[in-house]
Amino acid sequence: MRLAYDLLVFLVVTAQASRSWNLTAALELPPCVPACAQRILPEYNCTLLDETTSLPTDCYCASAGPLADKLSKCVLEECPTLAEALEGLKFQALGCDYPRDRNRGPVLLATAVSLFTITTLFLIARFLSRWPRLSGAGLSWDDGIVLACYIPVVGITLVAIRLVGYGSGKDSWMLPVENVMAVAKWFWAVLPIYLAAVFFTKLSLVVLYLRIWPSEPGCRSRFRIICWTIAAALVATALACIFSIIFACHPIRNSWRYADEAMGTCTQRVDAGIAYGALNATFDFIVIVLPIPRLLQLNVSTRQKIGICSCFLVGLIATVCSLIRLTRLDGLYTGRNITWDYVDAGLWSLIEVYCSMICCCMPSMAGLIQRCWRSGPWTTNDSRQMPSFEMMSANEKERDSGLFAPGYRDIIPSPTKLFRKKTSSKSTLGDKTAPNVCEKEVGFVTYMPTAQLPPEK
Fold first, then answer.
1. Do 357 and 261 sit in the same domain of this protein?
2. pLDDT of amino acid 70
3. Which of 173, 195, 300, 381 could form a disulfide bond with 304, CB atoms 3.0-4.6 angstroms apart?
4. What are the backbone dihedrals phi and psi of residue 433, each rounded to the nearest 5 degrees, phi first?
5. What are the pLDDT digits (tens) for 304-317?
6. A GO CC term (predicted)?
């Protein structure tokens, strides 16, 4: 009885303190709101009003914590429509004097537009580096996968701009119900696109490794087997995660929870999101460090090894973004203020996607950077003879017989041989028996000439 009286007084005080709400509106608050307050507040020994000041209590007005989470969850679940739930949350926000003009939308918009522009420039530079007319190696499957990954990146950028237009970055109770519904739907719709982008950018790197270290006739490379295994795992994991996101709820419309009077069941989507993030970060680390042991075996100076490895290790930036994103999922548990709480997770998801695209373009751009550097007026004759980072084209590979003459344009990364590792098998050469060479490619060449292989009959 005391709680009901407090609730009535609180509604009157709230109505008088707010210019946008009158007493009639306060008294017409949906029944689900006071019902939740009557049931939840006594569990935490909390009342609506302070007996001395007749103002809302600190425990009731806390914007975070077990009480706030449970109260908002009750309102969102018990109220039959989102409109009624938002009315209750808005009354609490106005009565407790929550901030009303917060807006992180401009930050989200600026991040999406700026990083998308940078990503596009890196993608263009990658394809220019591979263009045969610019002494590039030509296009291959890794370039096709990157180009395919650019499509979901464009989609994510457009969705981010659309979300800002609907009010993402503001408080839910300050927006029309239709806008909150739209934010919830678009946020759910972009999740499969995000997963496709981050997983398949890693796939493009694995395919690049397969291009750098190609197979040899009659020779099995353990490294290539590992690459193919990781590629299959990436595809399988991506498809599994995407399908689990799409069908996380039954019916599917419950995935954004806010479909009016929706009934059904959902999995623990936030816990699933943490699992997706952990898998993503794990694959990031595996794919990035996979070529490092081979790169460290290069017959080049330490400075050159550091430079080459740095082109690949820059992908750790995306891993860091993925780990930071995992720490920003707290706001997804309650759905209390989705247009505000979802911004952190969405912002770091954007940064991770763009960084993934940029990082997977870095190794392939090395040749273009070296060509531009060596052709500049600041470059001396000696520095022009330093090993470059260009990938050898197929015609150049066929034209070169495996013996690198002084002054020949070095190519890094390249499918050309640097190391030759012999196997125990034998092959016949005329009347003599010669060892059959199983060529284990490292893919990075220097001016050091390699031995000619004996011709095979």
1. yes
2. 85
3. 300
4. -110, 125
5. 777 777 777 777 88
6. membrane
